[in-house]
Automatic annotation (TrEMBL):
Protein name: Cell division protein FtsQ
Compositional bias (Low complexity): 38-53
Domain POTRA: 156-222
Annotated organism of origin: Aeriscardovia aeriphila
Keyword annotations of the record: Cell cycle, Cell division, Cell membrane, Membrane, Transmembrane, Transmembrane helix
Chain spans, region Disordered: 1-79
Length: 356
C-alpha cells in the first residue's frame, strides 16, 4: 500500500509499505541527508575562509597537517581546517581591491599597457601631423592671397619706368602699348604680356623687363638702328634698318646713315641690290658708317660708297665684309697710302686695287 510522506527540505514522495521499497527509500534519504550536510559544511567553510582572508588571518603548518590527518580518518576534509593557499589569497586580495587577477596575469597586463601606450603615442603623432598639414595649407593660402590680391603688390602706370626711348620710340608709345596689362599683382603679370605689345611698335628691336618688389617694373627698350636713308624721285627721305624695316621719315639727311637714291622706296626694298647694300652698311661699325655720305647700288655685286672726304670704295657684294673693312681702314688710316688715288676696290679683298 502506497502512502505519501514529506522528507527533508519539504520534499514529498510516494512510498509503499513493501519492506524492500521502504529499505530503498531509507537509503535514499540517508544519501540525500549526507549530501545536504556536506554542502552546508562547504558553504559555511567558504564564508569563514573569505572572512579570514579579509582580516589577514593565516593558518599555520600544524593546522594544515591536522586537516590532512582528519581527511585521512574520515574521508572528508573540514574546510575550516584547510591551510590557505598563497594563490587563492592573492586572488581574493586582488578581487577585494577591484582587480581581475583571475583572468589576466600581471605580466600580460604589462604587455597590454605597453601596447596601449604605443597606440596613444601613435594617435598623438597622427594628430600632430594632421595639425601641421592644416597649418601648412592655411599658410599657403595666405601667401597665395598676398601674392595675388594684396594691394602692396599692385602695379599701376605710375610704378612703371621706361628707358631707352629716342626719336624713333617715344615713352608715350610704350605706355600706351601696356596700359591694359597693368593694375594687377606684380606676380601675376608675365613678362611676355608686357613685351608683346611693345614689340609691335615698328621701330622697336628688343624689349627687356626688370621687376623690383614690391610693385615696380622697369622697361628697357632697344630701338632699331638706321642703316640708310632712301631718297625717292620726289626727294622724300625714308629711314630703313638692316632688315629693310621702314623706321620713319626725316626732313634732312642723317649724319650716321648714308643716302641711297631709288625710284620708289617699297619697290626698292624688295630688290637684291638694296638688300645687299643694307648688309654691307650693317657690317660696318657706327664710326665707319658715319664717314659714308652716299651709296650706289646698280646691281647686287656692284655696291659702292662715297666718303665725306670724296673717296670712293667699291665693295662688290656683301661677302667677306670683315676682311674688306680691315683693308679699307688700313688704307684710309695710313697717310700717304692712297697717294693721288681716290678709288679703293676691295671687291677682291686679298688683292685690293687703288685707282685715281
Amino acid at each position: 500500500m502506497a502512502r505519501e510522506i514529506t522528507g527533508h527540505a519539504g520534499v514529498k514522495r510516494q512510498i509503499t509499505s513493501s519492506p524492500a521499497a521502504r529499505s530503498a527509500i531509507t537509503e535514499e534519504d540517508q544519501t540525500t541527508e549526507h549530501s545536504i550536510q556536506a554542502a552546508g559544511r562547504i558553504s559555511s567553510s567558504a564564508r569563514r575562509l573569505s572572512a579570514a582572508s579579509q582580516h589577514g588571518e593565516e593558518h599555520s603548518a600544524p593546522a594544515f597537517a591536522a586537516s590532512r590527518h582528519s581527511r585521512s580518518l574520515t574521508g572528508f576534509g573540514d574546510p575550516r581546517e584547510l591551510a590557505h593557499s598563497d594563490g587563492i589569497m592573492q586572488t581574493l586580495a586582488e578581487q577585494a581591491h577591484g582587480k581581475t587577477g583571475i583572468f589576466t596575469p600581471s605580466a600580460h597586463r604589462e604587455e597590454l599597457s605597453e601596447a596601449e601606450q604605443l597606440a596613444i603615442e601613435r594617435r598623438k603623432t597622427s594628430f600632430k601631423r594632421a595639425a601641421l598639414v592644416v597649418a601648412g595649407a592655411v599658410l599657403l593660402l595666405f601667401i597665395a592671397w598676398v601674392l595675388a590680391f594684396s594691394p602692396a603688390l599692385q602695379v599701376s602706370m605710375k610704378d612703371v619706368t621706361v628707358r631707352g626711348t629716342n626719336q624713333w620710340v617715344s615713352e608715350q608709345q610704350v605706355r600706351t602699348a601696356i596700359k591694359d596689362r597693368l593694375d594687377r599683382s606684380l606676380i601675376l603679370i608675365p613678362n611676355k604680356e608686357l613685351k608683346e605689345p611693345i614689340e609691335q611698335i615698328r621701330t622697336v628691336d628688343e624689349v627687356k623687363i626688370e621687376r623690383t618688389l614690391p610693385h615696380h617694373i622697369t622697361i628697357h627698350v632697344v630701338t632699331r638702328t638706321p642703316q640708310a636713308v632712301l631718297k625717292d624721285v620726289s626727294g622724300k627721305l625714308t629711314v630703313v634698318d638692316k632688315n629693310s624695316v621702314i623706321m620713319g621719315q626725316v626732313k634732312q639727311p642723317m649724319s650716321n646713315a648714308p643716302v641711297i637714291s631709288v625710284n620708289e622706296v617699297n619697290q626698292a626694298l624688295r630688290t637684291d641690290a638694296i638688300q645687299q647694300t643694307l648688309k654691307v652698311l650693317s657690317a660696318m661699325n657706327p664710326e665707319l658708317r658715319a664717314t659714308m655720305s652716299e651709296v650706289s647700288a646698280a646691281t647686287r655685286d656692284s655696291i659702292s660708297t662715297k666718303t665725306k672726304d670724296n673717296f670712293t670704295i667699291v665693295w662688290g657684294d656683301a661677302s667677306q665684309m670683315p676682311l674688306k673693312i680691315d683693308e679699307v681702314k688700313h688704307l684710309l688710316g695710313n697717310e700717304g697710302a692712297m697717294g693721288t688715288n681716290t678709288i679703293i676696290d676691295v671687291s677682291a679683298p686679298d688683292r685690293p686695287i687703288l685707282k685715281s
